[in-house]
Amino acid sequence: MLTSLFTGISGLNANSLALSVVGDNIANANIVGFKSSRANFGDLLSQTLGGASAMQVGRGAMIVDIQKMFTQGTLETTANPLDLAIEGDGFFIVRQLNGPTYYTRAGQFRLDKDGYVVDPNGYRLQAYQMNPDGTITGAIGDIYLAGLMSEPRASNEVKIQVNLDSRQTVPLSAWTPPSGSNLPDSNTYNFSTAITIYDSQGNPHIVYTYFRKTDANQWTAYMVYDRSSDPSNPNYTQVGNFNLIFDENGRLTTDPPTTSFNFDFTPWGASAQDVTFNFTDSTQFGSPNAVVFQTQNGYSSGNLIAVTVDQDGVISGVFTNGQVKKVAQVVLAKFVAAHNLTKVGKNLFLESYGSGNPTYGAPGTVGVGKVFANSLEASNVDLAEEFVRMIAAQRGYQANVRVITTTDNMLNELMNIVR
Fold first, then answer.
1. Which of these ranges, 6-20, 330-344, 403-417, has the smallest mean pLDDT?
2. Regarding beta strands 332-334 and 359-361, do their DSSP bridges make them parallel or antiparallel, or are they unpaired?
3. Which of 156, 98, 87, 162 is nearest to 368 (CA)?
4. Furthest-apart CA pair in the chain: how many Å?
5. Closest Cα to residue 267, out of 227, 232, 295?
6. Which of 173, 166, 158 has its CA nearest to residue 242?
């Protein structure tokens, strides 16, 4: 009879521990990336009474395992581009400076004072490093964004598509190249346009293109720019000209419709460079002179103004010169037995012998899942389910108390026999 007392005590201990697990789940219901746990019950070693397989009496209950539940949580939208959420089985990898490596599902990342991407604990998010051209090196390290700049690119091609009015006549005044601070006389050309190109150091230079009709179906384009580095003392210079010839349908017959000119940018400290002008698809129709389209392929240097992250975990910088540059790619870890990871608090896990070694991969590969920016993963705690478990633990506790009080009453009755 005394064994029933200890059986009841084991039930009290098991149910109180189960209630602690439920309480922990409920307390963390609003924690980003939190994964709930479940108490798994088992019976204690039983006692055999009479015979090899006759009657077996249990000795009570125990918690054999507290299982971590790594089911997917709901994704919530946020305004921070460095808030990341995983849809899948992977873990973010964060490294403590001069400390261990942790794994987490909580993607609340930000920049620290040194320009590194860190979690709320100050641990640095790990990613595949990238070369300046955006190719992955395969090395895993910290993500550094401070002082990131986009280098300038020198222009080497200009595309200009224009319509030149076939109704216009040849100007009476002869073409006179610009000189010093004087641009060409407006009486010497029919139409003009301007475009900004860049030298090897990213300095902008305005190039003027003047179109002068020279025959019924022929025009000449003159390229002019300022050779002086002093804006208050311009020195306009013609670098060359190019003939555009059209057929009776107003289509360009010049083949090829391109030409190259050499621009001297040495006054700005840059080198001289060749720039190709492409007039493909230009026309001579009976409509007003107009620029249909023009572009060039150079740009100045730029400073970082924004950060973006795509579903492949590629972190890119957006710069003031309009360029987007890949910086790094978030790396995720996957474990064969993730439920055996060691919880260390603060939404962090450590690798354990039971979890196995991690498998590293980029988002979207080797089953680690995808990454979503401007998103956070909510906890996977189901409050309705936790309340049911709470009631079950409470009732189990009460029932075991009854076992103990009933056994006590029976012992009292036994003692009364003596009296």
1. 403-417
2. antiparallel
3. 87
4. 141
5. 227
6. 158
The number of distinct structural domains making up the chain is 3
Residues 391, 373 within the same domain: no
Do 79 and 182 fall into the same domain? no
E-strand stretches of 105-235: 110-111, 117-118, 124-130, 136-142, 149-150, 157-163, 191-198, 204-215, 218-226
Contact 272, 239 (CB under 8 A): no
Task: Using the predicted structure, report yes or no on whether residue 52 has a pLDDT greater than 60.
Answer: no
Q: Which domain holds residue 411?
A: 2-71+382-418
pTM for this predicted structure: 0.77
Residue 322 inside a domain? The answer is: no
Task: State the DSSP code for 45.
Answer: P
In a domain, 194, yes or no: yes
Look at residue 97 and tell me if it is in a domain: yes
Residue 412 is predicted with a pLDDT of 85
What tokens appear for 302 in the block?
A: 């730029």
Same domain, 172 and 235: yes
Instruction: Judge contact between 328 and 130, C-beta under 8 A.
Output: yes
Tell me, what's the pLDDT at 401? 87
Q: Contact, 359 vs 366, CB < 8 A?
A: yes
Q: Is residue 321 part of a domain?
A: no
